Protein backbone atom coordinates (compact mmCIF):
# COMPACT_ATOMS: atom_id res chain seq x y z
CA UNK A 1 0.00 0.00 0.00
CA UNK A 2 1.60 3.22 -1.13
CA UNK A 3 1.88 6.21 1.27
CA UNK A 4 -0.42 9.14 0.52
CA UNK A 5 1.23 12.10 -1.10
CA UNK A 6 1.56 15.23 1.04
CA UNK A 7 1.07 18.56 -0.69
CA UNK A 8 3.36 21.20 0.85
CA UNK A 9 1.49 24.09 2.47
CA UNK A 10 2.50 27.46 1.02
CA UNK A 11 4.31 29.70 3.47
CA UNK A 12 2.43 32.77 4.76
CA UNK A 13 5.57 34.78 5.12
CA UNK A 14 5.35 36.00 1.50
CA UNK A 15 8.04 35.98 -1.12
CA UNK A 16 11.56 36.20 0.15
CA UNK A 17 13.06 39.65 0.23
CA UNK A 18 16.03 40.22 -1.98
CA UNK A 19 19.23 40.40 -0.06
CA UNK A 20 20.95 43.76 -0.09
CA UNK A 21 23.86 44.04 -2.45
CA UNK A 22 27.22 43.32 -1.04
CA UNK A 23 28.99 46.33 0.35
CA UNK A 24 25.77 48.31 1.02
CA UNK A 25 25.99 49.87 4.46
CA UNK A 26 23.51 51.87 6.59
CA UNK A 27 21.87 54.96 5.11
CA UNK A 28 24.05 57.99 5.87
CA UNK A 29 22.58 60.72 8.15
CA UNK A 30 22.45 63.19 5.25
CA UNK A 31 20.30 60.79 3.27
CA UNK A 32 17.94 60.25 6.18
CA UNK A 33 17.63 64.00 6.69
CA UNK A 34 16.88 64.57 3.00
CA UNK A 35 14.25 61.82 3.05
CA UNK A 36 12.58 63.21 6.19
CA UNK A 37 12.73 66.73 4.79
CA UNK A 38 11.02 65.62 1.60
CA UNK A 39 8.34 63.78 3.56
CA UNK A 40 7.63 66.77 5.80
CA UNK A 41 8.20 69.48 3.21
CA UNK A 42 4.81 71.12 3.81
CA UNK A 43 5.28 71.22 7.57
CA UNK A 44 8.78 72.65 7.20
CA UNK A 45 7.46 75.24 4.75
CA UNK A 46 4.88 76.51 7.25
CA UNK A 47 7.47 76.44 10.04
CA UNK A 48 10.05 78.39 8.04
CA UNK A 49 7.41 80.97 7.10
CA UNK A 50 6.43 81.44 10.74
CA UNK A 51 10.05 81.74 11.85
CA UNK A 52 10.79 84.30 9.12
CA UNK A 53 7.73 86.39 10.04
CA UNK A 54 8.65 86.24 13.72
CA UNK A 55 12.25 87.18 13.00
CA UNK A 56 11.43 90.04 10.61
CA UNK A 57 8.56 91.59 12.55
CA UNK A 58 9.59 90.81 16.16
CA UNK A 59 13.30 90.13 16.64
CA UNK A 60 14.70 92.47 13.99
CA UNK A 61 12.86 95.56 15.36
CA UNK A 62 14.12 94.75 18.86
CA UNK A 63 17.73 94.45 17.70
CA UNK A 64 17.39 97.54 15.50
CA UNK A 65 15.96 99.51 18.41
CA UNK A 66 18.89 98.51 20.62
CA UNK A 67 21.42 99.93 18.16
CA UNK A 68 19.24 102.95 17.33
CA UNK A 69 19.13 103.89 21.01
CA UNK A 70 22.85 104.72 20.84
CA UNK A 71 22.80 106.42 17.44
CA UNK A 72 21.65 109.71 16.02
CA UNK A 73 20.64 110.51 12.46
CA UNK A 74 21.15 114.05 11.17
CA UNK A 75 21.17 115.09 7.54
CA UNK A 76 20.87 111.51 6.39
CA UNK A 77 24.03 110.50 8.29
CA UNK A 78 23.95 108.13 11.25
CA UNK A 79 26.56 108.53 13.97
CA UNK A 80 27.26 106.74 17.21
CA UNK A 81 26.47 109.03 20.18
CA UNK A 82 26.68 106.61 23.09
CA UNK A 83 24.40 107.56 25.98
CA UNK A 84 23.45 111.00 24.67
CA UNK A 85 19.94 109.83 23.79
CA UNK A 86 19.42 108.54 27.31
CA UNK A 87 20.61 111.87 28.72
CA UNK A 88 18.15 113.68 26.43
CA UNK A 89 15.31 111.50 27.63
CA UNK A 90 16.19 111.89 31.31
CA UNK A 91 16.36 115.68 30.99
CA UNK A 92 12.91 115.91 29.43
CA UNK A 93 10.41 117.37 31.96
CA UNK A 94 7.73 115.02 30.63
CA UNK A 95 9.86 111.94 31.33
CA UNK A 96 9.02 111.49 35.00
CA UNK A 97 5.43 112.60 34.52
CA UNK A 98 4.98 109.92 31.85
CA UNK A 99 6.39 107.23 34.12
CA UNK A 100 4.19 108.41 36.99
CA UNK A 101 1.08 108.36 34.81
CA UNK A 102 1.98 104.93 33.46
CA UNK A 103 2.46 103.60 36.99
CA UNK A 104 -0.87 105.10 38.06
CA UNK A 105 -2.62 103.56 35.07
CA UNK A 106 -1.06 100.17 35.83
CA UNK A 107 -2.12 100.35 39.48
CA UNK A 108 -5.69 101.35 38.66
CA UNK A 109 -5.86 98.74 35.91
CA UNK A 110 -4.79 96.06 38.39
CA UNK A 111 -7.56 97.14 40.77
CA UNK A 112 -10.24 97.27 38.06
CA UNK A 113 -8.99 95.37 35.03
CA UNK A 114 -7.66 92.46 37.09
CA UNK A 115 -10.35 92.12 39.78
CA UNK A 116 -13.47 92.93 37.76
CA UNK A 117 -13.03 90.18 35.12
CA UNK A 118 -12.43 87.62 37.86
CA UNK A 119 -15.58 88.65 39.74
CA UNK A 120 -17.60 88.61 36.51
CA UNK A 121 -16.30 85.09 35.78
CA UNK A 122 -17.32 83.96 39.28
CA UNK A 123 -20.83 85.34 38.75
CA UNK A 124 -21.21 83.73 35.31
CA UNK A 125 -19.98 80.42 36.68
CA UNK A 126 -22.86 80.39 39.18
CA UNK A 127 -25.45 80.38 36.38
CA UNK A 128 -26.75 76.97 35.43
CA UNK A 129 -28.26 78.12 32.13
CA UNK A 130 -27.40 80.75 29.56
CA UNK A 131 -23.62 80.71 30.08
CA UNK A 132 -22.99 80.72 26.34
CA UNK A 133 -25.03 83.89 25.91
CA UNK A 134 -23.29 85.54 28.87
CA UNK A 135 -19.86 84.63 27.50
CA UNK A 136 -20.77 86.20 24.18
CA UNK A 137 -22.10 89.29 25.92
CA UNK A 138 -18.91 89.72 27.94
CA UNK A 139 -16.60 89.13 24.98
CA UNK A 140 -18.53 91.40 22.62
CA UNK A 141 -16.54 94.60 23.50
CA UNK A 142 -13.30 92.85 22.52
CA UNK A 143 -14.68 92.18 19.05
CA UNK A 144 -15.56 95.84 18.53
CA UNK A 145 -12.95 98.04 16.82
CA UNK A 146 -11.12 100.19 19.41
CA UNK A 147 -12.17 103.37 17.60
CA UNK A 148 -15.85 102.42 17.92
CA UNK A 149 -15.44 101.72 21.63
CA UNK A 150 -13.64 105.02 22.15
CA UNK A 151 -16.37 106.94 20.32
CA UNK A 152 -18.91 105.28 22.61
CA UNK A 153 -17.04 106.40 25.72
CA UNK A 154 -16.49 109.87 24.31
CA UNK A 155 -20.27 110.14 24.07
CA UNK A 156 -20.65 108.83 27.64
CA UNK A 157 -18.03 111.26 28.97
CA UNK A 158 -19.16 114.35 27.03
CA UNK A 159 -19.64 117.23 29.51
CA UNK A 160 -22.60 118.67 27.62
CA UNK A 161 -24.86 115.80 26.59
CA UNK A 162 -22.99 112.75 27.89
CA UNK A 163 -25.00 109.91 29.35
CA UNK A 164 -22.96 109.79 32.56
CA UNK A 165 -23.61 113.45 33.40
CA UNK A 166 -27.29 112.96 32.57
CA UNK A 167 -27.33 110.06 35.02
CA UNK A 168 -25.53 112.08 37.68
CA UNK A 169 -27.95 114.97 37.27
CA UNK A 170 -30.97 112.68 37.58
CA UNK A 171 -29.81 111.40 40.99
CA UNK A 172 -28.75 114.82 42.28
CA UNK A 173 -24.98 114.54 41.79
CA UNK A 174 -22.90 117.31 40.20
CA UNK A 175 -21.73 116.99 36.62
CA UNK A 176 -18.11 116.01 36.00
CA UNK A 177 -15.54 116.97 33.40
CA UNK A 178 -14.49 113.38 32.86
CA UNK A 179 -11.78 113.87 30.25
CA UNK A 180 -11.06 117.56 30.94
CA UNK A 181 -10.34 117.33 34.68
CA UNK A 182 -6.71 116.27 35.35
CA UNK A 183 -7.76 114.68 38.66
CA UNK A 184 -10.17 112.14 37.15
CA UNK A 185 -9.13 111.87 33.52
CA UNK A 186 -6.88 108.87 34.17
CA UNK A 187 -9.66 107.08 36.05
CA UNK A 188 -11.98 107.67 33.09
CA UNK A 189 -9.38 106.18 30.73
CA UNK A 190 -8.92 103.12 32.98
CA UNK A 191 -12.68 102.49 33.09
CA UNK A 192 -12.89 102.63 29.30
CA UNK A 193 -9.85 100.36 28.91
CA UNK A 194 -11.27 97.83 31.37
CA UNK A 195 -14.57 97.63 29.51
CA UNK A 196 -12.81 97.28 26.16
CA UNK A 197 -10.39 94.52 27.19
CA UNK A 198 -11.96 92.52 30.01
CA UNK A 199 -13.65 89.92 27.78
CA UNK A 200 -10.60 87.79 27.10
CA UNK A 201 -9.51 87.68 30.74
CA UNK A 202 -13.05 86.81 31.84
CA UNK A 203 -13.20 83.79 29.54
CA UNK A 204 -9.80 82.58 30.76
CA UNK A 205 -10.90 82.90 34.39
CA UNK A 206 -14.17 81.16 33.60
CA UNK A 207 -12.35 78.21 32.03
CA UNK A 208 -10.15 77.96 35.13
CA UNK A 209 -13.18 78.05 37.43
CA UNK A 210 -14.96 75.31 35.54
CA UNK A 211 -11.94 73.03 35.97
CA UNK A 212 -12.24 73.11 39.78
CA UNK A 213 -13.72 69.84 41.12
CA UNK A 214 -17.21 70.31 42.53
CA UNK A 215 -16.36 68.09 45.52
CA UNK A 216 -14.25 70.89 46.97
CA UNK A 217 -17.21 73.25 47.05
CA UNK A 218 -19.43 70.53 48.51
CA UNK A 219 -16.91 69.91 51.29
CA UNK A 220 -16.74 73.65 51.99
CA UNK A 221 -20.55 73.83 52.18
CA UNK A 222 -20.58 70.93 54.64
CA UNK A 223 -18.15 72.89 56.78
CA UNK A 224 -20.59 75.82 56.76
CA UNK A 225 -18.63 78.05 54.38
CA UNK A 226 -20.52 80.86 52.68
CA UNK A 227 -19.92 82.32 49.23
CA UNK A 228 -17.05 84.58 50.26
CA UNK A 229 -15.29 81.87 52.25
CA UNK A 230 -15.63 79.43 49.34
CA UNK A 231 -14.08 82.00 47.01
CA UNK A 232 -11.23 82.70 49.44
CA UNK A 233 -10.46 79.12 50.50
CA UNK A 234 -11.34 77.16 47.35
CA UNK A 235 -11.59 79.33 44.24
CA UNK A 236 -8.52 81.51 44.69
CA UNK A 237 -6.13 78.70 45.77
CA UNK A 238 -7.28 76.48 42.89
CA UNK A 239 -6.78 79.27 40.35
CA UNK A 240 -3.61 80.72 41.87
CA UNK A 241 -1.42 79.83 38.89
CA UNK A 242 -3.69 81.42 36.29
CA UNK A 243 -4.27 84.45 38.53
CA UNK A 244 -0.54 85.08 38.91
CA UNK A 245 0.05 84.62 35.18
CA UNK A 246 -2.77 87.01 34.30
CA UNK A 247 -1.39 89.54 36.79
CA UNK A 248 1.96 89.43 34.99
CA UNK A 249 0.29 89.82 31.60
CA UNK A 250 -1.83 92.67 32.95
CA UNK A 251 1.22 94.60 34.14
CA UNK A 252 3.07 94.09 30.85
CA UNK A 253 0.04 95.18 28.81
CA UNK A 254 -0.87 98.22 30.91
CA UNK A 255 2.69 99.51 31.01
CA UNK A 256 2.46 99.77 27.21
CA UNK A 257 -0.91 101.54 27.09
CA UNK A 258 -1.31 103.90 24.16
CA UNK A 259 -4.58 103.50 22.26
CA UNK A 260 -7.04 104.54 24.98
CA UNK A 261 -5.32 107.77 26.14
CA UNK A 262 -4.43 108.72 22.57
CA UNK A 263 -7.98 108.39 21.28
CA UNK A 264 -9.83 109.66 24.35
CA UNK A 265 -7.69 112.61 25.45
CA UNK A 266 -5.42 113.19 22.46
CA UNK A 267 -2.53 111.50 24.24
CA UNK A 268 -1.30 114.07 26.73
CA UNK A 269 -4.65 114.92 28.31
CA UNK A 270 -5.32 117.95 30.52
CA UNK A 271 -2.05 119.23 32.03
CA UNK A 272 -0.31 116.08 30.78
CA UNK A 273 -2.37 113.88 33.13
CA UNK A 274 -2.66 111.01 30.63
CA UNK A 275 0.79 111.17 29.05
CA UNK A 276 2.20 107.66 29.13
CA UNK A 277 5.63 106.28 28.29
CA UNK A 278 4.51 104.83 24.97
CA UNK A 279 2.82 108.09 24.01
CA UNK A 280 6.08 109.91 24.82
CA UNK A 281 7.88 107.44 22.53
CA UNK A 282 5.34 108.31 19.84
CA UNK A 283 6.02 112.01 20.42
CA UNK A 284 9.78 111.61 20.04
CA UNK A 285 9.51 109.48 16.91
CA UNK A 286 6.71 111.10 14.90
CA UNK A 287 6.41 114.65 16.24
CA UNK A 288 10.05 115.49 17.06
CA UNK A 289 11.67 113.15 14.48
CA UNK A 290 14.12 112.03 17.16
CA UNK A 291 14.19 108.30 16.60
CA UNK A 292 17.26 107.84 18.78
CA UNK A 293 15.50 109.27 21.85
CA UNK A 294 12.39 107.24 21.05
CA UNK A 295 14.47 104.06 20.82
CA UNK A 296 16.27 104.91 24.07
CA UNK A 297 13.00 105.36 25.93
CA UNK A 298 11.66 102.15 24.41
CA UNK A 299 14.81 100.35 25.54
CA UNK A 300 14.27 101.58 29.10
CA UNK A 301 10.72 100.26 29.03
CA UNK A 302 11.94 96.93 27.65
CA UNK A 303 14.56 96.58 30.39
CA UNK A 304 12.02 97.43 33.09
CA UNK A 305 9.47 94.90 31.87
CA UNK A 306 12.14 92.23 31.36
CA UNK A 307 13.40 92.79 34.90
CA UNK A 308 9.89 92.61 36.30
CA UNK A 309 9.22 89.37 34.40
CA UNK A 310 12.50 87.85 35.64
CA UNK A 311 11.69 88.70 39.25
CA UNK A 312 8.21 87.24 38.83
CA UNK A 313 9.55 83.98 37.39
CA UNK A 314 12.13 83.67 40.18
CA UNK A 315 9.56 84.28 42.92
CA UNK A 316 7.15 81.81 41.30
CA UNK A 317 9.81 79.09 41.17
CA UNK A 318 10.81 79.74 44.78
CA UNK A 319 7.17 79.51 45.87
CA UNK A 320 6.65 76.24 43.96
CA UNK A 321 9.71 74.72 45.59
What's this model, at a glance?
With 321 residues, the protein is mainly alpha-helical. The chain is built from 14 helices and 2 strands, in the order ααββαααααααααααα.
Count of individual beta strands: 2
Strand content: under 5%
Note poorly predicted spans.
1-14
Which structural class fits the helix and strand makeup? mainly alpha
From the spread of the alpha carbons, the general shape counts as globular
Radius of gyration, in Å, reads 31 Å
Structure description:
This protein has 14 helices and 2 strands; from the N terminus they run ααββαααααααααααα. α4 packs antiparallel against α11 and α6 (146-157) crosses α12 (259-265). A two-stranded antiparallel ribbon has the order 1-2. The relative contact order is 0.11. The chain is mainly α and 321 residues long. β1 (71-74) and β2 (77-80) form a beta hairpin. The model is unreliable at 1-14 (pLDDT under 50).
SSE inventory with pairings:
Elements: H1 29-39, H2 41-68, E1 71-74, E2 77-80, H3 84-90, H4 93-126, H5 131-143, H6 146-157, H7 163-170, H8 185-210, H9 214-222, H10 227-238, H11 240-254, H12 259-265, H13 277-287, H14 291-320
Antiparallel strand pairs: 1-2
Helix pairs in contact: 3-14, 4-8, 4-11, 5-8, 6-12, 8-12, 9-10, 13-14
